[in-house]
């Protein structure tokens, strides 16, 4: 894996492409650092709240009043009954010790371990219905390939809320057993 690749000029975690077919890929990610917060509520409420907490941190609401570079994607994953974890990828050039301390005690820095993931890309508004439909479709594809889900689904959002629906990049992903 060579450094982080970018999307529209924003850094994203580096991965190796193992397989690609239309909008479905199998990717191998190395470890990467995220800032995350877990929020209660339904999915859309939790991501809105979590996004605000993390955005405040990267826009200077931290112990050093320092702005951090924007990265993609904003990720969301289930964390229990009516709990969701929202993640911002941290810039690759910074380790956790080089990041300013958060003022909000809910923010944690976590190194996401290496993983193998099945990912499906789609455009449009990431409504609960659209995300559920994409996750079910990817789950069926995984089973048809004889692969086994280890965890997920994860949801990844790449574009500003102001981006027109047909220009938005969204992804649903499942962690896979090594193969």
Description:
- A hairpin with a 2-residue loop joins strand 1 and strand 2.
- The protein has 2 helices and 11 strands, in the order βββββαββββαββ.
- Helices cover 18% and strands 39% of the residues.
- 30% of the residues are buried.
- It is an alpha+beta fold.
Order of helical and strand elements: EEEEEHEEEEHEE
Helix amount: 10-25%
Distance between the termini: 18 Å
Radius of gyration: 16 Å
What general form does the structure show? globular
Percent strand equals: 35-45%
Question: What number is the mean pLDDT?
Answer: 93
Major β-sheet profile: 9 strands, antiparallel
Strand order of the largest sheet: 3-4-9-11-10-6-7-5-8
Q: Any chance you could write out the topology, listing elements then pairs?
A:
Layout: E1 6-7, E2 10-11, E3 15-21, E4 24-29, E5 32-40, H1 43-58, E6 74-80, E7 83-89, E8 108-112, E9 115-122, H2 128-144, E10 149-157, E11 170-176
Antiparallel strand pairs: 1-2, 3-4, 4-9, 5-7, 5-8, 6-7, 6-10, 9-11, 10-11
Summary keywords:
two-stranded antiparallel sheet, 179 residues, single chain, alpha+beta
What's the short version?
By secondary structure, the chain is α+β, with helices and mostly antiparallel strands.
